[in-house]
């Protein structure tokens, strides 16, 4: 009864684990056995990179939230591709998505070639591919959400993916008009979906003492405080996107009731991460 048909794939459940949890594609089978209907691994970059200096992840326990500035720490597409290949070959596996991003050492002007390296290695293995242009922890990355940069990037990845469904993951901090324009771009390019949303730079309305939040420093905020904006973005997207376009809703999801609310609001699939930690 929970089966969802989306992206040309049969998902055993609408609920999966968001990118950022299994960055190196080492826990796919285990996460599937825990009950996640799909696992989105990554973010994977074209080149291996250690990420930002530690400490780089902080729990805001009164808010059931996390601030992270991991910085796409991962083994790189060349190392991760064989792990995804091995996972895909198993019968007892969840649906496997791969989230790809820009390598830190690559200039924004050279981002397309960097994304294409990951695409060529991972798209043939993944059930679906997500282009991450919305993490706040890689310099210049969010600038790729500007339409003049986003359109050629998504078009290039779509073409290189050779039939593997390609989605784009957006930030909650975009203005509503920007979200509408990206949705229109997705339709124009014939992409099958959007993942909404990534972490936020906002620190509004937190219960955690200000000095604790300030001590954590820069990074993206995830968890319960993101729920309202994530739901708002979902409703906006559902208003402007055709019903056949898949929306993966993520941000502040903690309970079965939260999942049901996202589905009612128009989500096709739902993801969690920080709620799993708590």
Order of strands in the sheet with most strands? 3-4-7-8-9-10-12-13
Major beta sheet summary: 8 strands, parallel, barrel
The amount of beta strand, in percent, is: 15-25%
Radius of gyration: 17 Å
Helix content: 25-40%
Question: How far is the first residue's CA from the last residue's CA?
Answer: 27 Å
Structural description of this entry:
The protein contains 9 helices and 13 strands. The protein is α/β, with parallel strands linked by helices. Strands 3-4-7-8-9-10-12-13 form an 8-stranded parallel barrel, surrounded by 7 helices. Helix 2 runs parallel beside helix 3 (111-122). It starts with a strand and ends with a helix.
Secondary structure layout plus pairing:
Blueprint (H helix, E strand, L loop, with lengths): L3 E3 L2 E3 L3 E3 L10 H7 L3 E8 L11 E4 L4 E4 L8 H12 L6 E7 L9 H12 L5 E5 L14 H15 L4 E5 L5 H14 L3 E4 L13 H7 L3 E4 L3 H14 L5 E5 L5 H9 L4 E4 L1 H4 L1
Parallel strand pairs: 3-4, 3-13, 4-7, 7-8, 8-9, 9-10, 10-12, 12-13
Antiparallel strand pairs: 1-2, 5-6, 6-11
Helix pairs in contact: 2-3, 3-4, 4-5, 5-7
